């Protein structure tokens, strides 16, 4: 099944990335798990899941250090996404945080650098820092995370704010609020959406309807939940696992061909929003 290609998503700067990547939330927190985490990321890279998402927040930088081990000797094969804490996102602080992330990652560039969520520093200041980092070649592009539609509209109003390359938000079958306005807003402007926690940290995998439909395709509930997100235009999905076999399972979700009838059954089990909802976060 892994012969089926992973679909690609194009960023505004022309960079193309696999729509199925790898997350690293909670990695780097326990030295006893480090080898399994590294091997899982390596396995994912081998399978074409070459986008790796991390952040200075994850494991207090430990996840970035795990990534550095996983990509050693393979930097040009991968697309690295990292994030700056909102309280570090001043003009000077953003640059310094990026330098620290680069050091932990063992690389000279981050392909996509995100503001993790909104804080007290003015957006114009953070964007100016991002643009400086981009001009110096330390980042390839910049974006945001946990921004709702109003935040995105405000961002586009600041100098160079229109250069935003992505918005990473909580999105899965049980958290479909962005489908009402934020997702179409981003899609209409060709701004990719990165879906974090795509299986709701495993909580949705026991849903009887998800299990029933997955069994019909000889798939796991997680594979079906990932396939649901991959059906959306411009969405990049970043499941996290520390198990190499599970990474291969995740990769196989791209081979699922779900009927319209079963998509409708999933909609009935996990209804799409009928009105605007506040952006959810974890």
UniProtKB/TrEMBL annotation:
<protein>
    <submittedName>
        <fullName>Aldo/keto reductase</fullName>
    </submittedName>
</protein>
<feature type="site" description="Lowers pKa of active site Tyr">
    <location>
        <position position="83"/>
    </location>
</feature>
<dbReference type="Pfam" id="PF00248">
    <property type="entry name" value="Aldo_ket_red"/>
</dbReference>
<feature type="binding site">
    <location>
        <position position="116"/>
    </location>
    <ligand>
        <name>substrate</name>
    </ligand>
</feature>
<feature type="domain" description="NADP-dependent oxidoreductase">
    <location>
        <begin position="20"/>
        <end position="268"/>
    </location>
</feature>
<dbReference type="InterPro" id="IPR036812">
    <property type="entry name" value="NAD(P)_OxRdtase_dom_sf"/>
</dbReference>
<feature type="active site" description="Proton donor">
    <location>
        <position position="58"/>
    </location>
</feature>
<dbReference type="InterPro" id="IPR020471">
    <property type="entry name" value="AKR"/>
</dbReference>
<dbReference type="InterPro" id="IPR023210">
    <property type="entry name" value="NADP_OxRdtase_dom"/>
</dbReference>
């Amino acid at each position: 099944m892994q012969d089926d290609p992973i679909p690609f998503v194009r960023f505004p700067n022309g960079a193309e990335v696999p729509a199925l990547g790898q997350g690293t939330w909670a990695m780097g927190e326990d030295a006893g798990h480090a080898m399994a985490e590294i091997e899982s990321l390596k396995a994912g890279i081998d399978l074409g899941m070459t986008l790796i998402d991390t952040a200075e927040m994850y494991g207090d930088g430990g996840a970035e250090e795990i990534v550095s081990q996983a990509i050693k000797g393979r930097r040009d094969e991968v697309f690295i996404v990292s994030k700056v804490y909102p309280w570090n996102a001043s003009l000077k602080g953003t640059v310094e945080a990026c330098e620290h992330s680069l050091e932990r990652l063992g690389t000279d560039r981050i392909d996509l650098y995100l503001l993790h969520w909104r804080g007290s520093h003015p957006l114009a200041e953070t964007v100016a820092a991002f643009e400086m980092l981009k001009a110096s070649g330390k980042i390839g592009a910049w974006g945001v995370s946990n921004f709702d539609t109003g935040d995105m509209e405000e961002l586009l109003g600041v100098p160079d704010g229109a250069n935003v390359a992505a918005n990473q938000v909580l999105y899965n079958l049980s958290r479909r609020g962005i489908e009402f306005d934020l997702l179409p807003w981003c899609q209409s402007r060709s701004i990719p959406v990165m879906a974090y926690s795509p299986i709701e940290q495993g909580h949705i995998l026991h849903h009887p309807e998800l299990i029933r439909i997955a069994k019909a395709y000889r798939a796991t509930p997680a594979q079906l939940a990932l396939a649901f997100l991959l059906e959306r235009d411009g969405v990049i999905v970043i499941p996290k696992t520390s198990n190499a076999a599970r990474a291969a399972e995740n990769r196989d979700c791209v081979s699922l061909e779900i009927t319209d009838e079963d998509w409708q059954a999933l909609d009935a089990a996990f209804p799409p929003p009928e009105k605007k909802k506040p952006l959810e976060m974890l």
